[in-house]
């Protein structure tokens, strides 16, 4: 089953390189400021009431998630392939993969307080380096030249994107980056809310392209059908004007630069702030909490009306 048939809704650090990558570019094998935004619409949506309508955000309610998460899980077979690539000396196993550590205030800024934590975060330094980001863009554009960007994967909130399952080198890289960088970051940021932060699983990932001249410029406000969402800026902010992720709770767009990541509760109303020039590329991920369907729905419904 292709991921393009699965989804209920869409969501959407210039090194000093504080988080040094164990797996930079060798994993990639080379293959061939303020924009327009429907603020009036956003403001109308802010005048919302509690609703009994919910998005399903767990494997229990969306059985397809049990399948769609599989391509993003790092296996021992993947480890053997990495070993053969001579990136590491000595025996490489899942247990030996070194996870990055992150510290609030130092490594990331937190916004939208909730209970004992925060529902929105942005890193202060890159989590992907410039070369890694460019390789992802290059592969996406190469594949798009053969099969075209998709524009109908996300129902009422379509993005111009390519699913990561269509990008083999990016997928190979991301499976390691999830274990080493992204999951540890999300556990640091949201662990106080989760019954078992080790059960975070990426259920969908895709590269989005915004193009001010001849493509999609923005994405209207929406909520994602998952527990957590993140997006990673793939090209420098100097290459476009506008952009960022708009959040209703802030009534403002949160902007990041190349390699940095914005992560948030999927239930927060948010949108892609419009660009007025240039191109903007981001890598988007929807994350579920495996085996915790009741909690996932309860957390989602508690947050969605903030």
From TrEMBL:
It comes from Nitzschia inconspicua. SMART domains: P4Hc. The keyword DNA damage does not apply. GO terms for molecular function: dioxygenase activity; iron ion binding; L-ascorbic acid binding; oxidoreductase activity, acting on paired donors, with incorporation or reduction of molecular oxygen. This is Fe2OG dioxygenase domain-containing protein. Its cofactor is L-ascorbate. Residues 196-289 form the Fe2OG dioxygenase domain. Keywords: Dioxygenase, Iron, Metal-binding, Oxidoreductase. Transmembrane segments: none annotated. InterPro entries: Oxoglu/Fe-dep_dioxygenase_dom (IPR005123), Pro_4_hyd_alph (IPR006620). The keyword Nucleus does not apply.
């Amino acid at each position: 089953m292709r991921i393009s048939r699965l989804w209920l809704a869409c969501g959407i650090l210039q090194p000093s390189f504080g988080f040094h990558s164990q797996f930079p570019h060798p994993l990639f094998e080379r293959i061939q400021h303020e924009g327009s935004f429907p603020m009036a619409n956003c403001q109308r949506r802010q005048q919302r009431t509690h609703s009994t309508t919910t998005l399903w955000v767990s494997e229990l309610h969306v059985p397809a998630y049990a399948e769609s998460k599989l391509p993003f899980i790092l296996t021992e077979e993947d480890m053997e392939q990495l070993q053969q690539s001579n990136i590491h000396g000595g025996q490489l196993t899942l247990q030996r993969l070194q996870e990055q550590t992150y510290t609030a205030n130092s490594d990331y800024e937190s916004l939208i307080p909730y209970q004992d934590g925060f529902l929105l975060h942005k890193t202060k330094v890159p989590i992907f380096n410039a070369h890694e980001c460019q390789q992802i863009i290059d592969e996406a554009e190469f594949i798009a030249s053969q099969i075209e960007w998709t524009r109908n994967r996300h129902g009422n909130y379509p993005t111009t994107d390519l699913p990561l399952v269509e990008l083999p080198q990016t997928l190979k890289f991301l499976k390691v980056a999830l274990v080493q960088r992204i999951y540890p970051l999300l556990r640091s940021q949201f662990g106080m809310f989760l019954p078992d932060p080790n059960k975070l699983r990426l259920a969908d990932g895709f590269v989005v392209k915004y193009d001010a001249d001849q493509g999609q410029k923005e994405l209207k406000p929406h909520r994602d059908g998952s527990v957590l969402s993140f997006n990673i800026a793939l090209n420098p902010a100097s290459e476009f004007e506008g952009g960022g992720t708009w959040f209703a709770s802030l009534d403002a767009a949160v902007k990041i630069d190349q390699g940095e990541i914005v992560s948030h509760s999927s239930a927060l109303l948010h949108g892609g702030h419009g660009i007025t020039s240039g191109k903007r590329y981001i890598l988007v991920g929807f994350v579920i909490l495996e085996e915790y369907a009741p909690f996932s729905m309860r957390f989602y419904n508690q947050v969605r009306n903030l």
